[in-house]
Write a structure and sequence with these properties.
It is built from five helices and twelve strands. The chain is α+β, with helices and mostly antiparallel strands. Strand 10 and strand 11 form a beta hairpin.
Length: about 210
């Protein structure tokens, strides 16, 4: 983790490790620190995804820091080596590729006026084009979290749309409440779970960031 005068920023694999300990599902993976020998993990199933880990890179895709669809050990070795050469790389996170789901965003920040705030929105074009997000004050009860979800225009997709099965709203509510409780401690500056893939049963946290007030 990287320290400065105001906060401590945790890397993706550290935040995912925290949420995994809290009982949330994350993709099965392995983190390679810079300088560590790159040995193909024997416990991971191809295809894999490899992602740069760096406190200096705010958007992995902007620096070519994500390699998807890795099919074998040779391709994995090349991908990890390429990512390690990206300026500012501190390591590479290798994970099993997640099944396609509906992507949502769950986050939290400390607002200067309102204090700890939680945000929910659907991912993809709903956030990029429509800014379809909703905010609530932490901590949230499960009822509050459900209300937050229902404030978004795209929430109807979660109930099943055009013959698709409804998604696991219960695990989504659990995730939102957990983020709100972390934010309510006053120790965390920001949490960004983006995206979280929702399925008819369960979810996976696909990317995660967290900054703690120092």
């Amino acid at each position: 983790m990287t320290r400065n005068r105001r906060r401590v920023t945790f890397s993706e694999h550290e935040v995912k490790g925290l949420f995994k300990e809290m009982g949330f599902a994350v993709p099965k993976g392995r983190f390679f620190a810079r300088g560590e020998a790159i040995l193909p993990p024997t416990d991971l199933t191809f295809p894999l995804v490899a992602k740069i880990s760096s406190s200096k890179v705010s958007s992995k895709s902007d620096v070519g820091g994500v390699k998807t669809g890795i099919k074998d050990k040779d391709e994995l070795s090349r991908a990890v080596q390429e990512l390690m050469r990206v300026e500012g790389a501190e390591g590479v996170l290798v994970e099993e590729m997640a099944p396609q789901g509906v992507e949502v965003i769950v986050g939290g920040v400390i607002d200067n006026q309102f204090g700890p705030v939680v945000m929910f929105g659907l991912g993809g074009v709903f956030v990029e084009l429509f800014r379809d997000v909703a905010f609530g004050l932490a901590p949230l009860t499960p009822g509050d979290a459900l209300w937050l979800v229902q404030q978004t225009k795209g929430h109807r997709l979660l109930k099943g749309y055009r013959g698709k099965p409804p998604l696991d709203i219960a695990v989504l509510i659990h995730t939102i409440v957990a983020v709100s409780e972390i934010m309510a401690t006053g120790m965390v500056k920001e949490i960004d779970l983006n995206p979280v893939a929702l399925y008819p049963e369960g979810s996976l946290i696909l990317d995660a960031k967290m900054a703690v007030i120092s």
